[in-house]
Every structure is written in C-alpha cells, then in structure tokens.
User: What shape does this take?
Amino acid sequence: MNVFGLTCKELADEMSRRYGKGIYHAAALYREVFKKGNTSFSEAPEFSRSISFTRQLNEDVRLPSCRITEKLEDGVTKFASLLGDGHSIESVIIPAQGRTTLCVSSQVGCRMGCRFCVTGGMGFLRSLTAEEIVWQVYAARFVLNCRIDNIVFMGMGEPLDNFENVMQAVLVMNDQRGLDIAFSHITISTSGHVDGIRRLAGFHLPRLRLAVSLNAAEDGLRSHLMPINRRFPLACLKKELQAFPLGRGGVIFVEYVLLKAINDSRDDAKRLAQYLEGLPVRVNVIAYNAGGSTTYAPPSPEEVLRFCGWLAEEKLFVCLRQPRGQSIMAACGQLGALLAEGIHGKV
Assistant: This one.
C-alpha cells in the first residue's frame, strides 16, 4: 500500500477495502507519516490497541525505495536521491527571507532537449512516480530537517510530460491532513507543452501557479533553442495561455533565460513584449548559467540590467532572478551535470 502516492481520502478507501477500516485510521497514518515524519507508527494511540491490525499494516505499507546519497551547499542545498532502480535525481532547497522553496524533479532526464539546459542534454530515461516526487518533499522536511513552504516543479524533467504522476503528487502535497502545501504555493513550470497546459486547465485549480519557459518570442529562434516549439509554436502556445483559467489577480510566470548575443537585444525585448500583450504575466529574467557547454555564454550584469530596463519600458512586470548555487551546479538549467560526471559531496 503506497502511502506516499495517495491522498488521505484515497488511503481511507484502500484501508476500507483491505481491512474494513476507514478515515479514522487513515488520518492517523497520514499524520504520523506527513506531519511527524514517522514511518514507524505502531505506537500511535490509534494503532497501539490493535496489535494484529498494526502488524498487518506494517507489512502492507510500502515506502518509497529512495535515499539521499549526496548533499552540496552554496547558499542553497542540492541533494541527490538514489531511486529504487538505480537512477538518481537532484532537488534543490532555496532559502529566502520568510520562506523556503523546494525545487523538485519530475523525471530522470528530459525529452525536451532544450539546448541551454544540462538536464535536456541527458536525454530521457524515465518519468518519476507520484511517490518519488512526494518523497523529495518528505526528504527535505524530515531527513534534512528543512521547513518547506513552496514547491516549484523546476527541477529535472518536463512536468507536463509526466502529467498523471505530477498531478497526483500535487494533490498529495496539498492534502491538509498531510503535507498541507496550498495550491497557491505550488508552481508547475513547463517548456510550453500545450497539450499538458490544456489538461492542467481542465483540473480547475485556479490557485495553482503556472510558469512557462519562453526564452524567445520568434519561432525560428525558439525552435532552435527549444525543440518543443516545432510541435507547439508560439501562436499555439499563446492561444492556450489566453484560455488558461486564473484566479482573481492571478498571473502566468514567464521565464526568460538570457543568452549573450542570442536573445538579449532590444529587438528581442520588443518581440517579447508584443508576444505577451494581453496576457497577465510576470517576467522572470534569468542570466544563463553555464553547464559545461561552450555554445552559450551569459550576458554581463550590465547587459542583463539593460534588458530588464527595456522590458520595463514596454510596461512589463519584470523580476530579475539572482543566480544561486552555481558553484554546485544547482542553478537554473544545471541539474544533472554532476550526476553525469559522478561528482558529489557526501552527506
């Protein structure tokens, strides 16, 4: 019985089917695991009075076969997890004033092939299960003892290419009887997977946040940088974003990675503003983080600020995201580099 992959209601249904028990025992099990980080629950009062039931439950409960194998720190904490089949993933804990964000992975590698992304260069190995995604939150909270307030699906993989498992993990994370992370504190980032955005809209979760990695507002350049644009070109993507349901005051976050002399000109800024016209957006500008490739380079700090100024002149809401964790390959676009090289700092 896979507790990490079930909401409390689903767990109650499963326990009713297996043991004739219901929400009382399911909520207790959920509390022990997700509120207390306790996977040995036999001493909880709800179970201590029924030795035979508790013994059977202990035999049936399946915990994720994952473990943290590496941890590196540089203002942020990156940890690598070894999965049951021998594959590894990376996750990043990002502290900020008043909150801590966990960047989770949704796949081992990625099939999108974005040219500036280390993970994309790994190719696609497999998608994570819901329990493997949820385990990253559990590990950050109860193995590394970090308070986690926000979740961003910006780690390894394209979340909307693993739609069912990602959405099940989101529902488990949100469950108030367990991890209790509000939808408004969960962001799903996509490279522009239009079919996935449409399916996400169908869930009618207006508080769940959507981020789109854009990086160019001209089809030729974007298709070169992000092959997914050949399948879902910019006009198709914009149409889906216009239809995406947002709550009152809601916005779509647009991620724009600046590549020196590639997408950082005044014309690029104007094209971006024209493309985003009519959409409720906030633009996060991110200077390219080198990942071992010499194909691209980051603009200078002055060039980054200049580009942000051009966007502001076009009346866009702009946020310059400061790079963190570059020395441990934990910054945007860098996850997977050390896995490929086999270089880590031990826990």
User: Anything to note?
Assistant: The chain has a mean pLDDT of 92. Residues 11 and 327 are 42 Å apart (CA to CA). The radius of gyration is 21 Å. Residues 130-143 form the longest helix (14 residues).
